[in-house]
Amino acid sequence: MPTPVLADQYEDWLTWVMTSTMTAEPVRRFYAPEMEKFEERRKRKAEHRARMLAARNGTSYAVAALRRMNVPPAMRRLVDKSRGGLVKRLDNVTVLVPAAALPQSLELSVSHPLDESARETAAEGKSLSLASLPVAFGPEGTVFNTPVTITLPYDAGLVKAQGLKESDLKVHYWNPRTQAWEAVASRVDREVKTVSADVLHFSVYQVLGPGGIGVLALEADLGFKALYAFPNPIRGQGSVTIRVQPGLADSLAVRIYDVSGRKIHESSSFLDRGAFDDGNGLGPQLTYEHVWDISGVGSGVYAFVVTAKKAGQEDVRKTGKLAVIK
Questions:
Q1: Quick check: pTM over 0.70?
Q2: What is the CATH number of domain 220-325?
Q3: Less Cβ crowding at N or C end of the chain, within 10 Å?
């Protein structure tokens, strides 16, 4: 049987053994029970993280965290009618109230709304892509004497990944009566990555952009759509590019092994290419690339294992092979 490697490499080595076409069937059967233990352990850890998020922050907060965006706690502040004031959440969501805009002195709030499914479905139906978290300004339904200014930060990474233009972003108002999003005249600040709008009433607001690759494509579960290396085989000196389309991942890591199971390369450095269509028939996908310099290795067949991580979900791994000819 193959000799196990160091403990900190064992799980990746075992994954390679179980998925590689070079592994003999008796070896695969021998290690199958151990692999089942690893999979069960990862599943328990993922479920524990999800329960902790829900218990600490509430279900809607957990859903947002699983989408890679952390939601700060709600912010509340008593604003005097005659003086006005500013309410600002930790993520820089703000509402600026001029003097005399309020009908009476009120405790204003900036918080995360509860159920998001109807709003997300409505956005998809109008070909709008999400660029920020939704924000509930309260008390809901408050009407102002003069406009107040709301400012929402947008996620630049999400905008890039969906192929959106920052200049096209707008604050949208959720109309609960029509169950539809309505665009509001907006101002985009590309320096600080925010969008502002003057509004006359409180409700749920969100930064949305037209087009892009869509809500559903980005919110898909973590999982490899494609993974391959090129050029493969590679001849002489140079470098190999490992291209990954893993869905919406928080982080990626690659480890490369020789035929004896010895780890010869490890890295978490990936270039984010955004929503890229590589012609594989899957359309635009979130795409990342890692470049491996092969000048220090000899001829042979190498296995690479890429691990994708996302908060609240089980890590996923996929293995590939590449050949070096010198």
A1: no
A2: 2.60.40.2550
A3: N
